[in-house]
Design a protein that fits this description.
Number of helices: 13
CATH superfamily: Glycosidases
GO molecular function, one term: hydrolase activity
CATH class: Alpha Beta
Protein name: Glycoside hydrolase family 10 protein
Helix content: 25-40%
CATH architecture: Alpha-Beta Barrel
Shape: globular
CATH topology: TIM Barrel
Radius of gyration: 21 Å
Largest sheet: 8 strands, parallel, barrel
Structural class: alpha/beta
Keywords: Hydrolase, Signal
Order of helices and strands: EEEHEHHEEHEEHEHHEHHEHEHEHH
Strand content: 5-15%
Pfam families: GHL10
């Protein structure tokens, strides 16, 4: 396993674009030159010749999962941890960091719409004394990294007590916007004023910072919880006329959020991309012949009311990054089958396909035998190289990139990331 001696972390913090790209030196590292056909071997004379691809890692802030390693650290300590993650990305020859900046209807920048995130100071609304998003963008770009700002549209809190929110939190000022479900609080996606507000809150970051992309994760309507009801009946009665059922209305609400956000991003800054990272199964083939050969217990179309396939076919997003968090050969959801399915979905569109990779499973004793093999993830990259539509991979999550329990990330880097490359654009 690779040693991290030259850099300290606080405990717990832990495809193809056509054309020729000139060799450019950024932050002391040379980016590779001309693209090569998919499947062609790397050639080494004076430099590696590789295709452009996205190589990213998620850095999660909710519940201090990755960063900061604990709430209440000094501003200097928080910044040092953040910089260490960026340096780790460079060392691993990654080119993109996806930083969670709106984890629970709050902000990691001085937002006029929402309070400071509690994961910085331990107190929601308390100024941490610095600007994490602004610093992340600046320092990432200095290192030749893209910074994708990761937002969660509707999650308000990982509890159901509004009194625990900051006094000025919009969810307290507008209690009619909020619904409890599964032990958490959510904004109601069926309310037009909610959809407008969450867009305003997220797009503030697009206006203020030179971010490279707006990135959403897999939470739209919440994941189903047995025995509980997401009680939007009154909203459906008010706004659901003309829809065959509540499910169709809910999907339309999510469609509106995606389409409107996409349009507004491009009006603000045309070069900012819009990407979404959904749960890896749109629908099972047993539910819909257009679906994947899977037997997943969750289907985004039916359970999260998110028509991820439709967004691609309609061209509303710039990239899709499905979380294909299973091993090759997994019976209910085979990585290989899902990779092929998603490749076919994006074929003929202008939507880039990046693959979300479950690095966190590598070496976890609770996972199947395949995840105890350090080569499993490297085999994913080998398999993806057979598909021109696959233009990169993103690893979950930052602390797992750092600790790399069984050397799975080392193996990926050694096998596939021999030189730095630029993301596809």
């Amino acid at each position: 396993m690779r040693q991290m001696a030259r850099r300290s972390f606080v405990a717990g913090a832990a495809g193809v674009v056509a054309g020729v790209v000139s060799t450019v030196t950024l932050a002391g590292d040379a980016f590779a030159g001309p693209s090569r056909p998919t499947g062609a071997p790397e050639q080494s004379r004076h430099r590696h010749v590789v295709r452009r691809e996205l190589r990213g890692m998620w850095v999660a802030t909710v519940a201090n999962l990755d960063w900061p390693s604990a709430p209440g650290l000094t501003a200097a300590a928080q910044k040092a941890e953040l910089i260490a993650y960026l340096d780790e990305a460079v060392d691993r020859r990654l080119n993109t960091v996806v930083l969670q900046v709106r984890p629970t209807a709050d902000a990691l920048w001085p937002s006029p719409y929402e309070p400071w995130a509690q994961y910085l100071t331990g107190v929601q609304g308390k100024d941490p004394g610095w600007d994490p998003l602004g610093t992340a963008v600046r320092e990432a770009h200095r290192r030749g990294l893209e910074l994708h700002a990761w937002f969660n549209p509707y999650r308000v809190a990982n509890h159901t007590d509004p009194s625990r929110l900051a006094a000025t939190h919009p969810a307290r000022l507008h209690p009619d916007w909020v619904l409890p479900y599964g032990g958490k609080l959510y904004y109601n996606p069926g309310l037009p004023e909610v959809r407008s507000f969450v867009q305003d809150a997220m797009l503030d970051a697009v206006r203020r910072y030179d971010i490279d992309a707006v990135h959403w994760d897999d939470y739209f309507y919440p994941y189903p919880v047995a025995g509980q009801v997401f009680d939007d009946d009154a909203t459906y009665r008010k706004y659901g006329a003309g829809f065959p059922d509540k499910a169709a209305w809910r999907r339309d609400n999510t469609d509106k959020l995606v389409r409107e956000t996409a349009e507004r991003i491009k009006k603000i800054k045309k070069n900012v991309q819009f990407g979404i990272s959904p749960f890896g199964v749109w629908r099972n083939a047993s539910t819909d012949p257009l679906g994947s050969d899977t037997k997943a217990g969750v289907q985004t179309y039916d359970d999260l009311y998110a028509d991820t396939r439709g967004w691609i076919r309609k061209g509303w997003i710039d990239y899709i990054c499905p979380q294909i968090y299973w091993n090759i050969g997994f019976a209910a959801a085979d990585y290989a089958k899902l990779l092929s399915w998603w490749s076919e979905v994006v074929r003929g569109t202008e939507v880039d396909l990046f693959v979300g990779e479950a690095l966190y499973k590598a070496g976890d004793p609770a996972q199947p035998a395949a995840w105890q093999d350090p080569a499993e993830l490297s085999r994913h990259i080998d398999l993806a190289a057979r598909y021109d539509q696959v233009r990169g991979h993103v690893y979950f999550s930052g602390k797992d990139v750092v600790r790399d329990r069984i050397g799975a990330m080392d193996r990926v880097v050694g096998d596939h990331y021999r030189s730095r490359v630029r993301p596809p654009r």
